[in-house]
Give the backbone structure.
Amino acid sequence: MASAHLDQNRQQPAPAAHSSTLFQQAMRQLTGGVTLVTTNHEGINIGLTATAVCSLSAAPPRLLTCVNARGATYRALSASRRMCVNILAVDHCDLARRFAGMTDRGDADMFAMGDWSLSADAPPRLVDALASFDCEIDMIMETTSHGVVIGDIKEIVVGAGRPSLLYGNGQFQIPNDIVAG
Ligand SMILES: Cc1cc2nc3c(=O)[nH]c(=O)nc-3n(C[C@H](O)[C@H](O)[C@H](O)COP(=O)(O)O)c2cc1C
């Protein structure tokens, strides 16, 4: 049940439930890993920064991502039916900002920054990603604003262990100490 008063102990009153501000405020509390979702359509490489990525199943290996249907990457994903999901490390923060459109890149190629494995007919793979998942897109569930893109994983590359790049509370972050194993 949606409510603006979920926590009676909250010291500050929550904003009105009918505003998407409440949703955004709540979702900012969910800190998560950051990925770059890429594809190649008719020889053109494109991609975006995405936190809406999760495992769907291990057998068969599948994952899903939620992509804004108004974006250029969504159109390319829909057409190519291929994607690569690249999990970012803390040292990839500039890439994350670039692929989120947070930095003015002018007319420069998005893939000029970073160590990419590029091919004429495959999604770009970030060579030093923490892990990369090369997927064939099995299904796209269309919602009002986003597509839920389900990928059948065809190849996995696991990179060297480094801290993950996190995003929460509207900021890129590095992981805190582990509290339990
Ligand atoms: C931390 C962060 C996470 C994001 N996660 C997503 C996401 O999961 N799905 C999405 O569609 N856009 C997400 N975005 C926004 C896109 O990265 C951004 O709008 C991008 O410029 C869209 O590119 P496009 O026009 O090629 O689709 C995120 C942005 C940031 C900063």
User: Anything to note?
Assistant: Residues 33-52+72-113+120-136+156-167 form a domain with the Pnp Oxidase; Chain A fold (CATH 2.30.110.10). The CA atoms of residues 130 and 160 lie 6 Å apart.
